[in-house]
Amino acid sequence: MQINPKILCALGGVALLSACSSVDNSGTAVPYGGNPFTYSSSVSSALSSEEPTTDFGKALKAEYLAYAQREADEWYDFFDADFFAKKAGRVSGDTIVLPEDPANWRFSDEEIAQKRAVRDELLALLDDGKREAMPATAAIAQSRYDCWVEESEEGWQTELISQCWKDFEAAMSELRAEQPAVVVAPVAAAEPRLFTIFFDFDSVAITPVSERVLDAAAEQWASSMGDITVVGHADAAGPAAYNLRLSERRAAAALSELTGRGVKGDMVSQDAVGEGDLLIPTPDGVREPRNRRVTISVD
């Protein structure tokens, strides 16, 4: 049986837990962190806590409890099983429990920025009424985002990390979609699926997180066989001409990864805009991780 290294860290106490990562863990989920010895009582407390008053709360609580059970029963990770059981217990009454802030997990500054960009979009949709309009889908999106964050921090169950991301993206696609008008009209073409990968400063290297996003993009293309548009971007640090060339290299790197995953090159259009289309508007010369990206649109 393969033992999750995080279990060994948890059983060894706080000092050993810190030793298991080269990233500063001082901020990790201190108020409601998991304990491998209190999982059962945390589940009992969650089940006996006040029932959520909203459909979203009820769905979210069920999602967290199910994930906690899988962490314990399938992966023997009682530390995180207890963490999510406690989080399920906090979903009670009309309390709004938010998706995890990656700054509270063991990630580098670049990874935190990347995951926060994803979290920001999720929160924007939830706060725009999707909790009320699509409670079950919104709960899946939030729970799978938390799954992606937690499993990415561990970094050893690559198939599970990829599955969490795919489930999250599928739910997000539903949340992003406009509600259809109730009129008789021809069936509209499906909206393209948008995937985004991010880069370190002045780099074209594909990160492990981006590898999983590219996997999902390639799988989406394989299921639709539609055209793909790849657009490279850069932040506003450095000269505009240099940033244009950098965004071209990033787009080329993404295209190479996609064709390596079976995507046909003649079905891909490639473009680069340098600092001309900033996701996060900044003054010239400012470094912004969320602007260092490639967008991949799959029809």
Key features of this structure:
4-stranded mixed sheet, alpha+beta, 299 residues, 60s Ribosomal Protein L30, Chain: A, disordered N terminus, 2 domains, 10 helices
Brief characterization of the structure:
The protein is α+β, with helices and mostly antiparallel strands and 299 residues long. The chain contains 10 helices and 4 strands.
Report on this model:
The chain is α+β, with helices and mostly antiparallel strands and 299 residues long. It has 2 domains: 5-176, no CATH class; 193-298, 2-Layer Sandwich (60s Ribosomal Protein L30, Chain: A). The protein has 10 helices and 4 strands. Strands 1-4-2-3 form a 4-stranded mixed sheet. It comes from Thalassospira tepidiphila MCCC 1A03514. It is found in: Cell outer membrane. This is Cell envelope biogenesis protein OmpA. InterPro entries: Bact_OuterMem_StrucFunc, OMP_bac, OmpA-like, OmpA-like_sf. Residues 186-299 form the OmpA-like domain.
